Amino acid sequence: MPVYKAACRGCHGGCMYLVTVEDGKVVKVRPDPEGPLNRGRGCVKGMSIVEQMYHPDRLLRPRRRIGPKGSGKWEDISWDEALDEIAGRFSAIRKESGPEALALISGTGRHHLSQFWRFGNVLGTPNATSAGALICLGPRKNAGEFTAGHFAGVDYYGETRPGGILVWGANPLISGADGELSFHMADALKEGIPLVVVDPKPNALTEKARLWLRLRPGTDGALALGILHQMIENGWYDREFVENYTYGFDALRERCGQYDLKKVSEITRVPGDQIVEAARLLGRELSPLAMEWGCAVEQSTNAFQTCRAIFMIPCLAGSYDAPGGFVESMEIAPTADLLFDRLDPETAKKGLFGDYPINDGRLTPKLFAHPYLTLEAIRTGKPYPIRALLSSANNTLISMADSRHSFEALSNLEFFVYMDFFMTPTAELADMVLPAALWPEVDSIFCMPEFGDVAALSMRKTVQVGECRSDEDVFLEISKRMGLSYGAETQREILDGILKELGRRRPEYAGMDLETFQNLGWIAPERTYYNYKTRGFDTETSKLELYSERLARVGADPLPYWQEPPETPVSAPDLLEKYPLILTTGSRVMPYFISNNRQIRSLRKLHPFPLVSMHPETALAHGIREGDWVWIETARGKITQKAKFLPELDKDVISCEMGWWYPEAGAPGYGWEESNANILTVGAPPHEAEGGAYSLRALLCRIYPNPDCTIEARYNAWINT
Question: How many Cα atoms occupy the beta-carbon half-sphere of 319 within 13 Å?
Fold first, then answer.
């Protein structure tokens, strides 16, 4: 039986697998012992891929709605019918109302994301959007690029091991996404590498940490600036690095002086002695210092500048691009060309960017329509109608802030095309549903960790399941049928172009063709360190920019800062009587990736219900016992999750899981309103000033028992059939 090497994209990816095929069907997968990132290890998401591929509810051919929107009535059609209808409707709308009347929305990255933006530029629409650009990796990526020219990650792969790891707003033992795989953190724990953990919520890492800073949700930026202040004023930083390789240190010192110990402790609730100890450990003792950080620091109205401040901590410690430290991306291979030149400048001015310089072209060539503003234009027709939307890898009703707002918007669309692996609550609002290919069914090349390249990995199409296609194949085919040049006739041309550029950047791989690369499965060039010492930083000043002249030129603050989020006990005291508790959302569990996999029985059994964590005394005060179903309510609405007690949690902090819907509840709603954390969150302004991020955390809520919940009984009936 043939065995193929292929990279898993069950999350953002990074694990290499050996895929066994018999009679045109995948029958077995096992982690590749030679995989450069996973080294023979895999998680339950990757190991369940056979169950996912051949699940009886998998979408296998295009569907067209035949009843009213949301009625759950569909007919199967051919790909030719689907693509011709999409191309015809898109072309007519483009001609009648301009390309800005077409919108695209994507979710988590995976293999298709660069071509998603390419497709938007080919269509000529400025209204391509993704929440990730604002609240999931985008602000961290931008912080790295605006400060050092490149993103950076933990050097788990060299001969020198980290001397310590700062873990901020992340739990890589659970998430392990973006190529920063959970196995490496598990190894670090076994080795006894010291951790400093910043998180309001206890977890397996806080239990093992040298120091745990339990801050008030939403105050990460103030804490980062307070730590920087202590590092600078106590001399706990690398003077040689600062004097020779940074720009704007004196300005940063002055800004950090506004975040003295007393003020920061009052804001964050972290005791002053712990802030000082964190600065000493990070700046002096734990060297080389590496850093794991997650989207918790991005999902607020301080996202970009908070990320800038946090990024500076390992840099001032002298650990940037140091062996075992916080090392920059190797930039091994490019993504597909985004074809920026296809977007007409006058049309670009109509984009729904908001007044956010990271999105609207003032700071980067890539344009990001704001997801909430795009959905608002669909909902209201203002500032102009958006008539058609194509959604790729985005279960919008579950994954976007303020889900009821999303429902109103999607219900108002003239023509909605949705592409995914399974029917979802969002799919049920579409006019056309397209079956997407899973990772063993796609040819692709990508680098991991995301934006912090260590290795280039190969996805390989090993089988064809039903009529499923890759998202990028669909983008290309729609473009062709609309008479628009996609810049390539086939996906093979695009992959060959990536390999050609890889060979230019890495001459040792020049001339490699796709088959050779796929047979290898991956490449991992030898890393060099301290690259800034020979070529400088890839910034305007060729130095690490603590003060950003580029930001200053567009009127943005060139230095990191922090402001109180809009709905907290401090900023909204009038809400406290009704909503006395602080809610943080976004908690994740290993079997799932965002909203995926709830119908995969082997995974669902591992974690069947959403959990809301609270202090036992808080629960007692509200008449809640552990294991009870609980209502969680904010000013936007209420949902129900199952109570879990965490004595280490602050008594006024509640933490709930994200991504929940219930396939067993059936079409058309699939229980999308029952436990979906984004019913509770805020998408509307005020947004973050630089990129438009919004608040998914640090919100005000109340809790009370839900004695009549039937979710558990419904699940038991389903799982036992």
Answer: 32
Pairing of strands 152-154, 653-657: unpaired
The band of 673, judged by pLDDT with boundaries at 50, 70 and 90, is: very high
N-term to C-term CA, the chain: 33
What is the per-residue DSSP string for 399-421?
HSSSHHHHHHHHHT-SEEEEEES
Give residue-wise pLDDT tens across range 501-531. 999 999 999 999 999 999 999 999 999 999 9
Give the 3-state secondary structure of residue 698: strand
The span from the CA of 58 to the CA of 278, in Å, is 49
| Ranges assigned E (strand) in 533-607 | 544-545, 581-587
What is the per-residue pLDDT across 608-641, written as a single tens digit (0 to 9) for each?
Answer: 999 999 999 999 999 999 999 999 999 999 999 9
Q: Is there a contact between 422 and 663 (Cβ–Cβ < 8 Å)?
A: yes
What are the b/e assignments for 55-90, b being 16+ CB within 10 Å?
eeebbeebbebeeeebeeebeeeebeebbebbbebb
Peptide bond just before 525 cis, omega within 30 deg: no
Contacts 24+ apart (CB under 8 A), 605-610: 605/719, 606/44, 608/715, 608/719, 609/641, 609/642, 609/711, 609/712, 609/715, 610/641, 610/642, 610/656, 610/657, 610/660, 610/675
3-class SS letters over 3-51: EEEEECCCCCCCCEEEEEEECCEEEEEEECCCCCCCCCCCCHHHHCHHH
Q: Which DSSP state fits 303?
A: H
Query: If we measure between CA atoms, which residue out of 11, 4, 8 comes closest to residue 27?
Result: 4
Q: For residues 197 and 189, what is the distance between their CA atoms, to the nearest angstrom?
A: 13
Rounded Cα–Cα distance for residues 455 and 663 (Å):
36
d(CA 60, CA 8): 20
Residue 506 in tokens: 């890495």
Alpha helices in 217-361 (DSSP H): 220-233, 239-245, 249-256, 261-268, 272-280, 303-316, 345-348
Q: 655 is written with which tokens?
A: 């933490």
Q: Which two tokens stand for residue 203?
A: 């977890």
Task: Say whether pTM exceeds 0.85.
Answer: yes
Q: What is d(CA 340, CA 454) in angstroms, rounded to the nearest whole number?
A: 27
Contact 642, 619 (CB under 8 A): no
